[in-house]
Design a protein that fits this description.
By secondary structure, the protein is mainly α. The chain has ten helices and no strands. The longest helix is centred in the middle third of the chain and has 26 residues. It starts with a helix and ends in an 8-residue tail after the last helix.
Length: 202
């Protein structure tokens, strides 16, 4: 009897890991603050790392800004979300990808004649080091990923940097699972040639 009560109590508790708990999503849709806190705890950190690993195209739009907009959009659209807590990461990161793309488009529309013709290589480690608010590891990751095409960079960032699975990565990037695996394989091959990862790494 005690074991049964303990099991029921555990099932009702909201896990901050948010593995495959459909109840968390259902409660989040009803505006439950604890459910949102669980989702935020599970995904906010890696969402921010992922956004920092991608070029924003606009120095005035920070990864923190994009992450905030992503969570606000997710909160407004959660009623339309269909899936489990396992699926939430792919959905959330997909929103973030669109937010980043829209920010880049707004920047392109605002851009006029350049103030200088000098070209700065902001992917160089020397320039990245000036951003003291970003950890060294994240600056190094951004520098490494800058050597990859956009789609491969996004796939590696999802799979290797923040630990999404293939299904969540596919959902986040609007790709199918096979395309994710192919892009991942090609990216790792390029990074090995660059010397950024060991030959045996997968």
């Amino acid at each position: 009897m005690v074991r049964t009560v303990a099991r029921v109590t555990t099932e009702r508790a909201i896990s901050t890991v948010v593995a495959a708990d459909d109840e968390t999503i259902a409660r989040a849709k009803k505006g439950d603050h604890a459910a949102w806190r669980a989702l935020y705890t599970a995904h906010a950190g890696r969402l921010l790392v992922w956004l920092r690993s991608l070029p924003s195209g606009d120095a005035g739009v920070s990864a923190e800004d994009l992450a905030s907009e992503t969570w606000l959009t997710a909160a407004s659209k959660i009623a339309d979300f269909r899936g489990s807590s396992d699926d939430f990461a792919g959905w959330l990161f997909g929103i973030a990808r669109l937010q980043a793309r829209n920010a880049g488009r707004r920047t392109s529309r605002r851009r006029t004649a350049p103030a200088t013709t000098e070209v700065l290589d902001l992917t160089h480690q020397g320039h990245a080091a000036a951003a003291s608010d970003v950890p060294d590891s994240e600056r190094w990751i951004s520098w490494v990923l800058s050597h990859l095409p956009a789609r491969e960079r996004q796939v590696v960032a999802c799979l290797e940097v923040v630990g999404l699975d293939v299904a969540s990565t596919a959902a986040a990037l609007g790709m199918n699972a096979s395309a994710v695996r192919v892009a991942h394989h090609r990216a790792l091959k390029k990074l090995r040639a660059l010397g950024a990862i060991e030959a045996g790494a997968t």
